[in-house]
Automatic annotation (TrEMBL):
This is Winged helix-turn-helix domain-containing protein. Gene3D superfamilies: Winged helix-like DNA-binding domain superfamily/Winged helix DNA-binding domain. InterPro entries: WH-like_DNA-bd_sf (IPR036388), WH_DNA-bd_sf (IPR036390). It comes from the Bacteria. Pfam families: HTH_24.
Amino acid sequence: MKSGEPRWDFFTNHAHVMFYLQAHPDQPLRQVALAVGITERAVQRIVAELEEGGYLRRSKVGRQNQYLIVGDVPLPHALQAHRSLQDLLDWEQSADGTAEALEDFKALENWKVGEHGSEI
């Protein structure tokens, strides 16, 4: 970690692994670990948990694994369960921070947090 960088993040390592595998589905887990900044063993555990949860499928292509994201599965936490994994991945990929990009992208429209109607 570079000095001056926060010690926390809004996304979990599971999300970072999914973001990386969406863009690089045929990379070895060693490369995923380097990109995310965690150990290869941690990535192996995360991939196993994502497979078990139905969010990811692994297939062999030659001697390498290839990862397929199953985007229509709802997000696991009750506060976001009304959204799919693909909603999150699409938002992350398209939101470049400009007003135009956020205006054009409607995946977060009506994204309610909690049962009390607060929205982001």
